[in-house]
Amino acid sequence: LLPEGLLIFLLLQLTWVSGQQLNQSPQSASAQEGEDVSMNCTSSSIFNSLLWFKQDPGEGLVLLIALYKAGELARNGKLTAQFGGTRMDSFLTISGSEMKHSGTYSAVG
Question: In the prediction, which pLDDT does 11 show?
């Protein structure tokens, strides 16, 4: 069993989306409850939009945040995401993580 409060984040690397390579890092991360956790993705080309999803085991994808404009910053509860100025990268930060934030996170462009 895991110690109480330990969060496990399984991060999915997307290798081909819209015909271009999209890399996500870190591949996996863990944090204690209350800690901030950040992840990012980078692309080999410009995206018109970038969507962040979460998936719990045995469940479908749930859209968390959609970004459409260069430099756009969006929030959803404790989640914050920003589209890079060149629209070739993005980050997602979970502020004050909780057990409910455990899961698999994906960026799709």
Answer: 45
Q: What is the pLDDT of residues 23-79, one digit of tens each?
A: 777 777 777 888 898 988 888 888 889 899 988 888 888 999 999 999 999 999 999
102 vs 107: CA distance, rounded Å: 16
Q: What is the CATH number of the domain that holds 86?
A: 2.60.40.10
Strand partners, 62: 54
Cis peptide before 57 (omega within 30 of 0): no
For residue 1, tell me if it sits in a domain: no
* CA nearest neighbour of 73 among 91, 58, 47, 59: 91
What is the domain count for the chain?
A: 1
Q: In this structure, are residues 104 and 92 in contact, taking their beta carbons and an 8 Å threshold?
A: no
Residue 88 lies in a domain: yes
Which pLDDT value is given to residue 79?
96
Total-model pTM: 0.81
- On whether residue 78 sits in a domain, the answer given is yes
